[in-house]
Every structure is written in C-alpha cells, then in structure tokens.
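Q: Joint fold for the lines below.
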Amino acid sequence: MNCKDARQLITGYVDGELDLVGSMEVESHLEDCGSCLQTLKSQRDLKQAIRSSALSFDMPRGLENRVMAAARKESKASARKSATASSGLSALRSWRWLSGSATFALGAAVMMLFMLVGRNLVHTPNGSRTEDSLSEEIVSSHVRSLQASHLFDVASTDQHTVKPWFTGKLDYSPPVVDLADQGFPLTGGRLDYIGGRPVAALVYHRKKHVINLFVWTSGAGSGDLRGEPKTVSLRGYHTIGWSRSGMTFIAVSDVNAGDLKQFVDQIRSHTNP
Amino acid sequence: MFKRVDRDALAQALADLPVEFREVVVLRELEDLSYKEIAQISDLPIGTVMSRLARARKRLQISLCTGSGKELQREL
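A: Joint structure:
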C-alpha cells in the first residue's frame, strides 16, 4: 500500500470504520511510514479536540437533545431507558431506521442542528442563554410534542396521578393543578428536555388546543423571568414565562394570547404558596 | 499536532467549513453516528462520507494551523 492509498483510508481507520482487511493494510503501512503515522495522530488529536471542546458548549447540548427527542419518537421503548441518562448519545445508537418519516424528522432536527451550530458556536460566548434562544427551544419543543404523538408519558386528568409520576425522574416535584372547571383541563404530563436538563411538561387542553406548561427549578440558564409574567410570541405561538419561589414556568400554545394569559393567571393563583 | 486546541479557534474553524463538510464532522464527532448512519441521513454513498470527513479534517487542521501562526504541516 502506498501513502496515497493509505491516506484515503486513514480517516476510516481513525473512526473505526474499516473492515478487517482494510485495517490490517493500513496498520502494516503505518509500521513503515512515519509521515502517515503523523497524519493519523493529527486526525486523532483533532477528533478529540472537537469532541471535548464542542461538548462543553451549552447550546449544542440542547440541540443534541433535540436530535435525541426526534429519535425517541421512533424508538420509544429503548430510548426511554437511556433518555434519563446523562449522556444522550447512547439513545442515538438505538435508532431503528424504520420509516421515511423518522429519517425526515431526524433530517429536520439535524438541519436545525447545523444552522444553530454554525451560528451559535461562534456567537455564544460563555453559554449564557438569551431569552430568544430559550423561547425558540420552548416553541420547538411544543411543536415537536404535537407532531410526534409524544405528548404524554403519563396520560391522566387526575393531578394525583400526574404529580407523583415525576417522582424519581426529576429532582423536584412540579406543582400540578387541575383547571377543568376553568376550561383548561389537565390531560397528562411527560418528561422533556430544555437547555440540556430534564424538565416537567404538564399538558393542558383548551378546547382542541394543547397548552404545554414547562416547569423547572430556577437557576442558571432559565433566563431572567422574575417579576411579572413575560410574553414572547414566536412563529404563531405564544409563550408566557415567569419565575416564583425557585420554580420557573413557561406556558406555550397556539391558543390566542388572551386565553393563554387567562390560563397563566389561573395557574399562578392556584400555585400561590 | 493539537494537544490543546483553542476553543474559539475551533468554533471559528468549524463555522468556516462549507456546510457539506461541517455536516459530516458534526454528525460524526458530536452525534457519534456511524458512516452508515451518516450516509443514510445525508443520502450519500459511504465512500463519500469517508472522503468528505477526510477533507473536512484536513481543512480544519489548515485553519487551525494558519490561525495559530504555525507553518502548515507537511502531510496536509
């Protein structure tokens, strides 16, 4: 094997993608060729650098979870086991390439990934979340929950079933209230991911519209939502967010802004400590 | 050789890559997909995935070398 041929294969070798014959040919060439060995080492170092550097960016973790959520649609059972693990990468391995729609959804998620990788790796200096990026993520998460038929991990109108369901899955207990009398029945809940963290998503309905209420413990990355609830409208969806007593809430829906505000007012008055 | 790569330089080098190269790098290094999976997602033959990755890595090494002022490494 000459250097030219070896160079073609070194990438595959470094990634562990060569078959046995190819690997052996490359290895035997490398025994005699310091220059190609150098190429190999450079590629390995570069790979390592990309993986260790990129994984510490906050934004790509959120994106990684988006791709993970897209995969979860098609392989719920196996992904569920690893969905709560700290590394989402094992969930990706359990994809089954079942249908065109899975690949499409994945493709869409991946496209989102590169556009944002391109934009945010350069522009996000120290991992602080902007409100826009949080709102984007909330709306995307909401839309995905609708498309995926993955609205519920627990489907129940009973708050005494939904609230305890989160025990052991989150390190906090989200307040769950039923507002059926006010026209906003609780329909269930699920575990979702925002900003790289598992969060509770409480699902309410308003006539035929879905309202997702995301709840998590306040801290870095929640954005500054102290004070009066803050409305952000994005792509036809309304989000209203607020923080109180150490919890951050964001409601998102395509219902009109007035109805969503009514929902938020009801939730706030029922969760007043 | 890049023992400790400057994170910003790496981010910039990645952002500077043409999208078809950035795509394979991200799918491989950040998402840990196999060549076969990348080929399916990107609708490319596996051989193309490998050669694109090779070229993408070469370009990144050049960006990073140039950026830090080191002379271009011979094997590039």
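Q: Anything notable?
A: The interface with chain A takes residues 1-5, 7, 10-12, 14-15, 19, 22-23, 25-35, 37, 40-41, 50-51, 53-54, 57, 60-61, 64, 73-75 of chain B (CB under 8 Å). Confidence is low (pLDDT under 50) at residues 68-76 of chain B.
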